[in-house]
Amino acid sequence: MTYLIDSDYIADYLKGKSPATTLLKTLFPKGIAISIVTFAEIYEGIYYGHDPERYKEVFRHFLKGVRVLGINQETAKQFALIRGELRKKGQLIPQPDLFIAATAIHHNLTLVTRNLKDYTRIPQLRYYQDPEASPS
At what angle do helices 95-106 and 36-48 cross, to 10 degrees? Predict the structure, then answer.
């Protein structure tokens, strides 16, 4: 497993938007995972979006071969370290993003996201941005 995919790319993938579909198909053989937080965010979008049955099926298909990483004690400790450092600097980011970053760091994964505004505040986080993607 090499990459942790953030919610923005999963949402675009489910909608069939390129470059998300192209990028994820390219990264899939290298091993991809999602955080349980992303899992929850995507299901919220499915449940309260249009055509929930269709998107549930697309997401179920996507999840085949994708590991969903939970929050364990070590991930929670990493979250605490990141949040404490950001709070000291007055640069807090949303808690879901902190848990996703902590998951990537704990599992030594590169985060695939377009949310560089928040994630670049975390120096120990490795992130990948598709050069073909437009910023969000």
Answer: 140
